[in-house]
C-alpha cells in the first residue's frame, strides 16, 4: 500500500545585506544555532565594508547582487534558490533568529503560504518619530485600499512556501518590496498569518538605510501603481469623479447665465468644462476596460500559482512528512 515518504523539508534563510559588517556575523551564527539544518544565504548589495567577508567567515553562502535596492536583491534570491521553506530576515540584528522556529511552525500548522513576523511596538517608536508615523499611515492606507489581511506590511521577517516564492513577480526595486508581497497575497487571497514578535534595535555604530521622506514617497508611489494594476476601476474612477466635479463646478454658472440671457459670454470656461467632462467619461471607460483586463490577469496569476507544486509539509508524530507530487507514486516501505 502506498505511503508518504518522510523527509525533512529544505529550509533556506535569506539575508539581504548592505553595509552590515557590525551585525551580520552574529546574525548568521544565531541562525545556524537555531536552524542547524538550514542553508543560510547572504546576498551582498554592493556593501562598502566587510559584510561579505564576515558573512562568509560565519558560515553563510555569500552572493553579490550589483543592482542596488532590496527589491532587486529579493528578486534575485527568489529566482536563484530552491527550497521547501524560505525564511527572510534582515542582517542588522533587529529580528531575533530564535523566533524562526515559531514562524516555520505556524507556516506548517496553519498551512499558510506566508507568515509575517509583525514588529511588536513598532508604531510606538520605529527608531524615529517619522518612521512610526509613516508606519501608522501606510498600514491604515493599505487596509483601506487592499484589505485587512496585514497589520504590519513593512516587516522584513517573513517565511514563505516555495509556491509563493516561485509565483511572486517581484517587480519592485527597493524597500517597497514588502508592500508588493502583501498586495500579491491579498489580491490572490492566499492563506497568510501573522505573529507578533519583539523588534530589537541596531547596535551602536550601525545606521539605518531608510530615508523617511524618500522611501515614504517611493512607497506611496508603489501604492498608487499597485492600485492601478489591481483595482483600475477604483483608481480611474477617482479621476473620473474629480474631473466630473470640476466640470460641473465650472459649467453650472455658465448654464445659469445661458438660461437667464440666452448668451454664453464666458466661452473659455464653457470649453474647459466640456473638456473636463470628456476627460471624466474617458477615465470612466478606461477604468471599466482595464478592470476586465485586471481580472483576467488575476485569474492567470492564480492559475499559475495553483500549477506550482504546493510543497506542503505536515507534522505527524513529530516528523515532517512531504506529500508525494501528483502523478508520482511513492514507493512502499
UniProtKB/TrEMBL annotation:
It is an enzyme of class 2 (transferase). This is Glycosyltransferase. The keyword Transferase applies. Keywords: Glycosyltransferase, Membrane, Transferase, Transmembrane, Transmembrane helix. The keyword Transmembrane applies. It comes from the Bacteria. It comes from Mesorhizobium salmacidum. The chain crosses the membrane at residues 235-256, 268-290. Residues 13-165 form the Glycosyltransferase 2-like domain. Pfam families: Glycos_transf_2. Its EC number is 2.4.-.-. InterPro entries: Glyco_trans_2-like, Glycosyltransferase_2, Nucleotide-diphossugar_trans. GO terms for molecular function: glycosyltransferase activity.
Amino acid at each position: 500500500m502506498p505511503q508518504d515518504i518522510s523527509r525533512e523539508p529544505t529550509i533556506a534563510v535569506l539575508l539581504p545585506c548592505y553595509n552590515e559588517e557590525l551585525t551580520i556575523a552574529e546574525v548568521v551564527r544565531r541562525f545556524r544555532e537555531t536552524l542547524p539544518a538550514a542553508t543560510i544565504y547572504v546576498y551582498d548589495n554592493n556593501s562598502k565594508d566587510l559584510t561579505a567577508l564576515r558573512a562568509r567567515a560565519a558560515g553563510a553562502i555569500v552572493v553579490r547582487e550589483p543592482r542596488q535596492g532590496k527589491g532587486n536583491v529579493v528578486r534575485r534570491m527568489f529566482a536563484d534558490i530552491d527550497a521547501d521553506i524560505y525564511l527572510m530576515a534582515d542582517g542588522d540584528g533587529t529580528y531575533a533568529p530564535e523566533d524562526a522556529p515559531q514562524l516555520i511552525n505556524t507556516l506548517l500548522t496553519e498551512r499558510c503560504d506566508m507568515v509575517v513576523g509583525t514588529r511588536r511596538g513598532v508604531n510606538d517608536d520605529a527608531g524615529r518619530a517619522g518612521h512610526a508615523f509613516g508606519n501608522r499611515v501606510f498600514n491604515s492606507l493599505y487596509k483601506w485600499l487592499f484589505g485587512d489581511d496585514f497589520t504590519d506590511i513593512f516587516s522584513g521577517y517573513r517565511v514563505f512556501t516555495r509556491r509563493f516564492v516561485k509565483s511572486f513577480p517581484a517587480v519592485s526595486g527597493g524597500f517597497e518590496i514588502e508592500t508588493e508581497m502583501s498586495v500579491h497575497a491579498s489580491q490572490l487571497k492566499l492563506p497568510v498569518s501573522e505573529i507578533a514578535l519583539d523588534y530589537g534595535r541596531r547596535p551602536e555604530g550601525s545606521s539605518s538605510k531608510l530615508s523617511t521622506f524618500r522611501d515614504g514617497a517611493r512607497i506611496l508611489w508603489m501604492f498608487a501603481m499597485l492600485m492601478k494594476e489591481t483595482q483600475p476601476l477604483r483608481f480611474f474612477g477617482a479621476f473620473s469623479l474629480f474631473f466630473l466635479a470640476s466640470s460641473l463646478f465650472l459649467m453650472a454658472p455658465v448654464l445659469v447665465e445661458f438660461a437667464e440671457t440666452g448668451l454664453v459670454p464666458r466661452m473659455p470656461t464653457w470649453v474647459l468644462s466640456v473638456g473636463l467632462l470628456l476627460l471624466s467619461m474617458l477615465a470612466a471607460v478606461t477604468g471599466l476596460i482595464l478592470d476586465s483586463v485586471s481580472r483576467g490577469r488575476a485569474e492567470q496569476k492564480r492559475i499559475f500559482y495553483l500549477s506550482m507544486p504546493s510543497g506542503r509539509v505536515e507534522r505527524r508524530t513529530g516528523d515532517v512528512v512531504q506529500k508525494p507530487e501528483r502523478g508520482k507514486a511513492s514507493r512502499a516501505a
